[in-house]
Amino acid sequence: MIAKLKGGKRQLAVLIVIGLAASGVVGFTLGSRIYTEAMQEFRALERTLAERSAELETRNQELVNLQIADKVNRLTQENLRGKVSELQTALVKLEGEVYLYKNLVEDDEAEVGLNLESLTLYRTLEENAYSYRIVVRRKAALSQTVDASLSLSIEGRLAGIPHSLPFNEADTSLKEDSMAIRFKYFKVLQGTFVLPEHFVPETVVLSLYEPRTTGSLVIRELPWRASDF
């Protein structure tokens, strides 16, 4: 009887060991499968992340390239607009000068002798600086070259006090207070006036004459009017 009990216990222990071993094998197998599937999903996520990161980098580079291209394009457009504006301004000036020269040459009704045809003033980018254009002409029976002298003064107020600015002080490129000129039909004189600080110009007085020619003096007083190019 005792031998039978001992044999039954031994069989039970073997069965328990076999059951535990089987459970371990099953658990290991399931765990391995779950781990393998998890690693596969993780690697798939890693690949997806790498692909998305590369795509994001590509899109960022495309965006940077587009931004640079847009900036260059805008700068180019601004430069083109500036060039077009400059050319249009130059064209207007040239058309005006051609019209002026044509009228000077073809005008048969002008009085004989010297004449101060016009004074044009333009603002410049520099403070208190103005470019000027003075046109003088002479009509005579004979088309001969003439020597003349041009003087100019700018009348106004300096700090509220009446002040007269001579030609060579307004245009510092001149050494004398008058300009000696030689021409046949007409002459265009150009330069720059630089006004003193706090000086408010009001009128420009011009005088033109032929030395040693009686009665040739011509004087014109013109209001100060400066326009943009």
Assign an overall shape. rod-shaped
Low-confidence stretches: none
Q: Between the first and last Cα atoms, what is the distance in angstroms?
A: 131 Å
Q: How many discrete domains?
A: 2
The major β-sheet equals: 5 strands, antiparallel
CATH topology of the largest domain: Immunoglobulin-like
List the helices and strands in order: HEEEEHEEEEE
Report on this structure.
The chain has 229 residues and is α+β, with helices and mostly antiparallel strands. The chain has 2 domains: 1-106; 111-227, Sandwich (Immunoglobulin-like). It has helices at residues 2-106, 167-170, and strands spanning 113-123, 129-139, 146-158, 161-166, 178-183, 186-194, 199-209, 218-223, 226-227. The strands form 2 sheets. Strands 3, 4, 5, 7 and 8 form a 5-stranded antiparallel beta sheet that branches. β1 (113-123) and β2 (129-139) form a beta hairpin. The mean pLDDT is 79.
